[in-house]
Every structure is written in structure tokens, then in C-alpha cells.
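We emphasize that the prediction below concerns an isolated chain of 401 residues; any contacts that depend on oligomerization or on bound cofactors are therefore not represented. The input was used exactly as deposited, without trimming of termini.
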Amino acid sequence: MKHSRSEVHCKTRKIPALHFEDHALTSFSGLVVFQGLFIRLGLKERLGRCFGHLAGGSIFGYHVIVLTLVVHLLLGYRRLRECESYEDDPMVKRLLGLSRLPDVATLSRTLAQADQRSVEKFRALVWELVVERLRQLKLARLTLDFDGSVQSTTRWAEGTAVGFNKKKKGARSYYPLFCTVAQTGQVLDLLHRPGNVHDSNGAQAFVIERIGRLREALPGVTLEVRMDSAFFSWEMAEALRTHRVEFTVSVPFERFCELKAMIEGRLRWRRFNEEWSFFETPWKPKSWNRRYRFVFLRQKVKQQQKDPVQLDLFIPHEWGYDFTVILTNKRARMKKIVAFHHGRGAQENLFGELKSQCQMDYVPVRTLAGNQTYLLCAILAHNLARELQMLAEPPQRHTTE
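Result of the prediction step, given as a C-alpha cell string:
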């Protein structure tokens, strides 16, 4: 059934007063706190500028559809069809400023009509919202984590490819590279890629561009970066050093046979505690032109070593220990450097939250721009939840190691 624009849109109401009484409440009454956040950020108007160039479409408007998807994810729903669960809910209508919500066909059709220009504008909006929060926090030091995460799909979608996938072997997927902020737990930006690329594909240009933009937006802030072994290279280390960025990068054993000999020939290890010990040395591979600080770590473990036997050609093996190597240009004490680098685990928790709570791993349509828009909706929903937490409570502590 077709409806006129006046039947769909309604004027935004003021935020209602909350009274905890023994009445039947809507299941989504908690959305009232997001209504104030949306007004504070001017989110609806800013989304309108992202999609204002798209003519025609549904009577709802592209920006309202995108905001509906953000609310859909904030409510914890995954598939587009699940919008039927709240199609008559008054609190959702109030939050969106609608008297009638779009159905699943409207959501799917409008999402599939997105273009790359709207995706880039939407991506810029996500960046702006995070940078605005960072300006308010006035941090002296900003920690960025870079890593990729797989988005699998069981069907064909534009831009997907079959790549390395531990959980769903042979499935088509995307493999976006994310830049996250450790201090706020928000996603700052992403580089969208097909699923058949290596983690480092396009990473160096992406990292350097993000660093340059952050220096313009936040002058005077000390930037530091953490990466896993997929990003280890001479070019990446030199680029970060040239741009005055402090960094720690995991070193892959498979690429340097000398590392195993250095560990096995080491007789004296300095101890942090009962579990960790270390030594460090200024070293460089033969093809490098500069020495860097290499940190060798040994951890006591109780579990049995179950790695493939052929990897012993490269990875040092000693019963009861695991070994790792870190490349860094930081000048802090060793204990602080190790604690800093191990903080990368927080990004894996962030990815888990994005996939379990914001449905980041769902691929809803067959078009590339539509799937990129949905991914940005998931990121925006996550960032808004973090923003609400930071508005509700003051910082409990300063940045630690």
C-alpha cells in the first residue's frame, strides 16, 4: 500500500518525562536516552547531508532509512526482515520522527540503491563524530590499533571473494581493515576490501593517510600504533618512524631464521614476574638499512605444544615456554612496552562486540555500496553506544600503559 509523505513523517516531539510506574511499557522504552543523543549530535540532519544528492527513492528519504537501520542494530536485531518485530512500536516511531515505519522491502530496496559517493560521505561522518569526541577528551596521547576482520556470506555479493576463512572455509567474504581508538573503544575508520587479500593489502597508504588527517584534526597529540605480524615490513616501520609515530609490531618467525637461533642461544633472560621474561637487542634483517629495537619475550605455559612439526624449522621450541618478538621504536621501559603491545587484545574484544551486538558480520544485499552502508551503520551504532557511555559517566582513570 502506498502512502503520502505527510502520512509517513511527523514533527519531532520533545523528550518525554520518565515515570517509573506500574504500567504496561513498550519493550523499547530505553530508546528515549538515544533520542536526546541524536538531538545533541544533530545526527538526522548530518545524515541528510550525506545522502542529499540521491534524488527520488522512497518517501522516507535515504537518511531516514539509514537512521532506521542504526536503530535496528541498536535494538539488537540482525536481519532486515526482523524489522517486523517493532513495526508498530510508538517509541521507535518517536525516535525516528515517523508515524509509519518502513517495511523490509523498502529497507532492502533503498539500501541496494546506495552509491559510492554516499558511502564516502557516510564514512566521513563516522570519522567526524569520533574526532569530535577526541577533541572533547583533550588527550595527550592517542593509541590506534589496525587489524582486519572477516565478513562471510553464504551467497554471492558484489566485491566478495573466496579467501582465508578459518570458520567458513570456501565461503565468499569481505575483509575490511579497521582503525580503532584504544582510549574510547570506537572505530575511527575502515578500508573496505574483498576477502582474498592479505592483511597488509593497501595498509601502508591507509595508515599514513589516517595519521596525517589526525595530525591536522588534533595538533599536538602524540600518536602511537599497535599492529600484528601481518603488517611487519621495512616500508611500514620506516613510514611510521618518518611520521614521528611510536609503534609496536609483532615479528613473524617464519620470515627470519635468525630469530630462532638468537632465542635458542640466549642463556640469560631478565624476568618481569613468574610468568614473563625478556631480553632486547638492536638488530636488523640483512635487507634493512637501519637497526630497530627488537624485544624477545618468553612466557611460561602449561598446555602442551601442538603446532605442526614442520614449523619447528622457524619457531623456537622449548618445553613449557612460548616465544614472541616485538619490533618497536618506543623508548619506554621494557615492562611498559610489553603491556602496551599486549593491549591489542582489546581490539579483538571490540570486533567480537561489533559482530555479536551490532551484527557487523551480516551481509544484507548483493550490491557493494549497500553492504558498505550497512557496515557503516553497524559501526555508527557501536560508536553511539560508546558515546552515550562517555556522556553518562566521567572518565574513571587516565590512560595507562
